[in-house]
Amino acid sequence: xxxxxxxxxxxxxxxxxxxxxxxxxxxxxxxxxxxxxxxxxxxxxxxxxxxxxxxxxxxxxxxxxxxxxxxxxxxxxxxxxxxxxxxxxxxxxxxxxxxxxxxxxxxxxxxxxxxxxxxxxxxxxxxxxxxxxxxxxxxxxxxxxxxxxxxxxxxxxxxxxxxxxxxxxxxxxxxxxxxxxxxxxxxxxxxxxxxxxxxxxxxxxxxxxxxxxxxxxxxxxxxxxxxxxxxxxxxxxxxxxxxxxxxxxxxxxxxxxxxxxxxxxxxxxxxxxxxxxxxxxxxxxxxxxxxxxxxxxxxxxxxxxxxxxxxxx
Length: 313
Description:
Pfam families: DeoC. The protein has 313 residues and is α/β, with parallel strands linked by helices. It has helices at 6-15, 31-37, 41-46, 49-62, 80-83, 120-125, 146-162, 180-200, 214-224, 238-250, 260-263, 271-296, 305-312; strands at residues 22-26, 69-72, 92-96, 103-104, 110-111, 130-136, 165-171, 206-208, 229-232, 255-258.
């Protein structure tokens, strides 16, 4: 199992809170955020990168300032978050490498995309603590993953060369001709399988969907060994996500990287509305997530060796 280097360990410590658990606020979405800010496609298209950047700055001010780290995109959010001193000095910064959306192969497989020109060196130049790469994986069909695995390899090697922290994320998806019930039944195995693919490629920190059950969470923890993993929110409602976080943390997760479940119904083109709802709705949600993490995360090392040992046992 690939271990964090000294420099990567320092970066990992910075994206964690004082308890050693990850509590990262994700707002690297572009298309998804536009769809939340406006319903009409024409109105969505009219929302500029600057408007998205202002929205992300508000999320950083109200949420990331009370967490350990913020995850943003390299198009709308930086360098302004740093240059305008929006981020507090003790708030870490992750920058996403993945472009919005995906291409589709003739076979119907999702082909992940990277933002042009965003390398590990550029992430460092933007003042970030590290990077994040997301790809789509279907661990039950090798042919679906070949292209995206090459992207993962490229990014992992690039960040290793720069000795810079990289968080590896994957999402799974349903094929167009696949039965919905059959797909849902496969989800735990797809998430465990996707985690294994990322680990086998050398991922040192994982961001993954909720694995679907206590048993699947424990299996991810067993596979990961010393590699810490965080559960993402995937936009589910807050109450559902709290239950998922509790299950994941109880079974060896090292924290949370959450976005839409916190702020999806709080953002508006009217920034005064955004600021009010972030403070009155999103911040209490964040505090509830932090309370669940505090209750279940007992790691004593940099990323919770005791936590994983209990999950193995």
